[in-house]
């Protein structure tokens, strides 16, 4: 059985082809959330990544193409994207779920457990032994995404603004953030922020964490707040009674918040799954 799995995040997309349980090929490209009316464009980008992988296998179609897409939490967006992908005739069956559902399936092979994802946005998604699914967070940068890259960086920008206006404490973020945004000084950072996308802002998060690692108290407080927010998502999704796995740009192995969050959860008595999560592998589980 040939299965294509696609993990579409807020910043990047990864597409992998599996024959049985064995990964045969992989490609990566630009990401971006699924929005109403954006199905055709996203399907085109995914088809461009998947088609060369299929050609390497000398097969005209895969048995299943399973897509986990950021922003595809509602049935209308999922159906729009599914129909658009079907028109490319890359697989006999197309399944579209949210990116968190795909990653959770990969983390627990479809069994019980909580997955916390933190990248551009954040979400916790769980499934218990009875098969009941629960989703906490993932409401987008205006209403949620607590502890995410955007959430952390937006508060760091605010801290720099407060320092600039002499109503907040001094912080080395005033040097770190302009450099990360590739602009010269706070005044230029203000101009940059007025047109920056959510992904652009989220890309500043590693600079905030690096500043915290250097001992800046303002950045350290923000980092701690992000860890606390992500731990709260995990607990609300059922982490007190199920194992928790971590994924996403801020929580993948070697990424800046992974160990701090894992340790915070373990101090609460939560069992943390330490293995890396490859969301694309969730396609094998969901394809049946």
What key attributes describe this structure?
288 residues; Nucleotidyltransferase, domain 5; 5-stranded mixed beta sheet; 45% helix
How would you characterize this protein structure?
By secondary structure, this protein is α/β, with parallel strands linked by helices. It has a domain at 2-108 and 279-287: 2-Layer Sandwich (Nucleotidyltransferase, domain 5), CATH 3.30.420.40. Helix content is 45%, strand content 22%. The protein is built from 11 helices and 10 strands. The strands form 2 sheets. The chain has a 5-stranded mixed beta sheet. A 5-stranded mixed beta sheet has the order 8-7-6-9-10, sandwiched between helices. Helix 10 links the parallel strand 9 (244-247) and strand 10. Helix 1 (39-56) crosses helix 2, helix 4 runs antiparallel to helix 9 (217-239) and helix 5 crosses helix 6. It is globular. The model has no long low-confidence stretch (mean pLDDT 92).
Short characterization:
With 288 residues, this protein is α/β, with parallel strands linked by helices.
CATH class of the domain at 2-108 and 279-287: Alpha Beta
End-to-end Cα distance, whole Å, is: 10 Å
Tally of DSSP helical segments = 11
Task: Classify the secondary structure makeup into a structural class.
Answer: alpha/beta
Sequence stretches where pLDDT stays below 50 over 5 or more residues: none
Query: Order of strands in the sheet with the most strands?
Result: 3-2-1-4-5
Spell out the CATH superfamily of the domain at 2-108 and 279-287. Answer: ATPase, nucleotide binding domain
């Amino acid at each position: 059985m040939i299965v294509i799995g696609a993990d579409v995040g807020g910043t990047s997309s990864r597409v992998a082809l599996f024959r049985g349980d064995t990964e045969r090929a992989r490609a990566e490209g630009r990401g971006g959330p699924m929005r109403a009316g954006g199905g055709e464009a996203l399907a085109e980008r995914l088809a461009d990544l998947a088609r060369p992988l299929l050609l390497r296998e000398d097969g005209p179609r895969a048995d299943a193409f399973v897509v986990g897409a950021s922003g595809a939490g509602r049935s209308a967006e999922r159906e729009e994207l599914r129909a658009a992908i079907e028109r490319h005739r890359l697989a006999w069956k197309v399944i579209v779920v949210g990116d968190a559902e795909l990653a959770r399936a990969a983390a627990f092979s479809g069994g019980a457990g909580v997955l916390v994802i933190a990248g551009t946005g954040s979400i916790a998604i769980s499934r218990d032994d009875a098969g009941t699914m629960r989703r906490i967070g993932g409401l987008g940068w205006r209403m949620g995404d607590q502890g995410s890259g955007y959430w952390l960086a937006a508060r760091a920008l605010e801290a720099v603004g407060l320092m600039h206006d002499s109503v907040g404490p001094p912080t080395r973020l005033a040097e770190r953030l302009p450099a990360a945004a590739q602009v010269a000084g706070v005044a230029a950072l203000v101009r940059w922020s007025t047109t920056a996308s959510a992904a652009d802002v989220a890309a500043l998060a590693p600079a905030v964490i690096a500043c915290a690692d250097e001992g800046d108290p303002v950045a350290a407080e923000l980092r701690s707040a992000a860890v606390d927010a992500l731990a709260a998502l995990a607990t609300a999704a059922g982490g007190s009674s199920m194992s928790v796995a971590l994924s996403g740009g801020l929580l993948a192995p070697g990424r800046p918040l992974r160990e701090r969050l894992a340790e915070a959860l373990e101090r609460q008595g939560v069992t943390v799954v330490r293995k890396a999560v490859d969301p694309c592998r969730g396609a094998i589980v969901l394809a049946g």
